[in-house]
Specification:
The complex is a heterodimer. Chain A is mainly alpha-helical. Chain A has helices spanning 2-15, 17-47, 50-53, 58-82, 84-91, 96-100, 105-125, 129-137, 142-168, 173-196, 200-209, 211-219, 225-246. Chain A has one domain (2-249). A 6-stranded mixed beta sheet of chain B has the order 6-7-8-3-9-10, with helices on both faces. In chain B, strands 2-1-4-5 form a 4-stranded antiparallel beta sheet, with helices on one face. A 4-stranded antiparallel beta sheet of chain B has the order 12-13-11-14, with helices on one face. The longest helix of chain B is centred in the middle third of the chain and has 14 residues, at 169-182. Chain B is elongated. The chains are: A mainly alpha, B alpha/beta.
Chain lengths: 251, 312
């Protein structure tokens, strides 16, 4: 059942120009970003004496910044991917096809979430050229590159689950996308809230609730249980809310 | 309640939306193997009731039973048992006809998927558009695909919400014929506001107006119920007058007109006793030329108008 819906959704993505536009645009923007980071780095290294230049880390200046920027791009790209998942089906009433069949809400939510993740992964696949270049430069650190990818994929999963929920509460795609963008912004702002607060405890709580601290830790290769628990519970929480929101028609 | 002859029992069902009552205390039953006409003007609550029966919308109160099972949001025993064609068919426009039907069949876990999809496409004459995207099809074909979607998992009970609405006359006739043939193996709840269509297709009807059931039951019984006394059409030769018939009870001549060489009187008697043979003998004895005598049953349209107008 999950496979059937996943297949239908992925086919639907690639039957419309949206998927190609998103993938193309994403590749273009990340390409420009990567190029700019490389140029800025080499200019920086050349501008200062050689002994000091060793202090400028390539990983810090190029790799980590690149993935942080990819995370930033998700703010727009993922809501565009998730916006139609439920709202369009609700508007066209095709969602009733599921409710007349023996399928359960959670199966639909998982299938749709996985289909959105598949599109995100195909977007990320286009960026694999960058690690190959980085590899060529001499940074042959598999674990660094894999945790960098893991960090953006985990963030994408969170944004997708949030996007699914936003899509399930409205039958207007635009509203769904705007709500997701606001939701993701809010997630980032929680961490900023932590920075503004002088109380250590409160600042730590904000830090834990915001996604940025977890993202940065994994990006730097510091994958801890607390981060996995955070991501797991985040995805489960919004998945659960989506299931409940779809189940409102029940009695 | 779980009488096996009754595929559907709607028991005192109401549904309220914020600020308005969509249906109020609706009760009716649908017998196995029948085509049950569900009649009402636009906005009468037909679609709301049908969605509640399909389990897509919870009633505010009351209970609905399909095949002896209580309808709830998720009753596993009712899955694959109800086929619904809503007013706007749930079509996935960017899918081809065949892919869409296979998708619906897979959702319902149909075993012999290929055979089933082929059979339904051939029955509904959509084999020639099987590879085309649904979004590019004409309205008639879209409606056929919508109907195919309800049949592909072979549900015994079909709910069709105005299936012939807005289609060209030929498609209407074909779909109607197909629905009639379907009734050999399915029970169908069929909503419409096209009255001749309902008269042709349905054995039983329910008339709903402003969210309330105004009449429900066998078409003949409803005719009988709304017939106020016996109505006879009596045809005499042109120029002849109808003799006084007051020995058969109080009556009035509601209309008279000339058809060819015959003058026809519509005579409404206050009581309902069928006294045609006596009237016939009496008229012949009175010396007039009796050319026609026929019981006039009111048209469904008359009943419908009576029901929807007088109880406003």
């Amino acid at each position: 059942m999950i496979w059937t819906i996943w297949k239908k959704e992925v086919e639907s993505y690639f039957a419309s120009p949206l998927a190609y536009i998103l993938i193309g645009l994403f590749s273009l923007i990340t390409g420009i970003m990567f190029f700019n980071l490389l140029v800025t780095y080499t200019d920086g290294v050349q501008a200062i004496p050689q002994d000091m230049a060793q202090n400028i880390s390539f990983v810090e200046e190029v790799v980590l910044k690149l993935f942080a920027n990819i995370n930033f791009l998700f703010l727009i790209f993922i809501p565009l991917i998730t916006m139609k998942l439920f709202s369009e089906e609700k508007r066209l009433e095709t969602i009733d096809l599921f409710w007349l069949s023996p399928i359960k809400e959670w199966q639909v939510v998982i299938a749709k979430g996985l289909s959105a993740l598949s599109l995100v992964l195909s977007m990320l696949l286009m960026t694999v050229i960058f690690p190959l270049i980085i590899w060529g430069v001499g940074i042959k650190d598999i674990s660094l590159l894999s945790t960098s990818y893991l960090s953006v994929i985990l963030n994408a999963c969170c944004y997708i689950s949030l996007g699914l929920f936003c899509s399930s509460i409205t039958n207007n795609q635009i509203i769904s996308a705007l709500l997701s963008i606001l939701g993701i912004l809010f997630l980032w702002m929680i961490t900023w809230g932590g920075h503004l607060n002088s109380n250590y405890m409160i600042s730590e709580i904000f830090n834990y609730l915001g996604i940025t601290s977890h993202f940065e830790r994994i990006l730097r290769g510091l994958l801890g249980t607390q981060d996995l628990i955070y991501y797991g519970s985040f995805i489960f929480f919004f998945g659960y809310l989506t299931v409940k929101s779809l189940g409102r028609r029940n009695w | 309640m779980s009488n096996i002859d009754k595929i559907l029992v709607v028991d005192n069902v109401s549904r309220e939306f914020p600020g308005r009552k969509a249906v109020t205390n609706v009760s009716f039953e649908v017998e196995k193997g029948s085509i049950h006409g569900f009649l009402g003007p636009n906005g009468a609550g037909k679609s709301t009731t049908m969605r509640m029966i399909a389990g897509l919308l919870p009633p505010s109160s009351g209970q609905i039973t399909v095949l002896g099972e209580k309808v709830t949001g998720f009753n596993p025993n009712l899955k694959n048992q109800i086929g619904l064609l809503p007013e706007n068919a749930p079509l996935i426009l960017d899918m081809s006809v065949e892919k869409y039907l296979r998708f619906v069949a897979r959702l319902h876990g149909v075993q012999n998927l290929n055979d089933q999809v082929e059979q339904v496409m051939s029955e509904l004459m959509i084999l020639d558009v099987r590879k085309r995207l649904i979004g590019n099809l004409s309205k008639g074909y879209k409606q056929r695909v919508g109907l195919a979607q309800t049949l592909v998992y072979d549900a015994p009970f079909l709910i069709l919400d105005e299936p012939t609405n807005g289609l060209d006359p030929q498609t209407v006739v074909e779909l109607r014929d197909y629905i009639r043939r379907l009734s050999n193996r399915k029970t169908i709840l069929f909503s419409s506001h096209i009255l001749p269509e309902v008269e042709q297709l349905c054995d039983q009807i329910t008339i709903i107006h402003q969210g309330k059931v105004r009449a429900s039951g066998n078409l003949h019984e409803i005719h009988k119920k709304f017939r106020q006394g016996l109505v006879l059409k009596i045809g005499l030769r042109v120029g002849e007058h109808l003799p006084d018939l007051s020995i058969f009870g109080k009556y009035e001549i509601t209309q008279s007109h000339v058809v060819a060489k015959e003058v026809q009187f519509h005579v409404t008697f206050e009581n309902d006793t069928d006294c045609r043979s006596e009237i016939g003998k009496y008229l012949i004895k009175s010396g007039v030329n009796l050319l026609t005598m026929q019981v006039e049953s009111p048209e469904l349209e008359d009943i419908f108008l009576q029901v929807t107008e007088t109880k406003k």
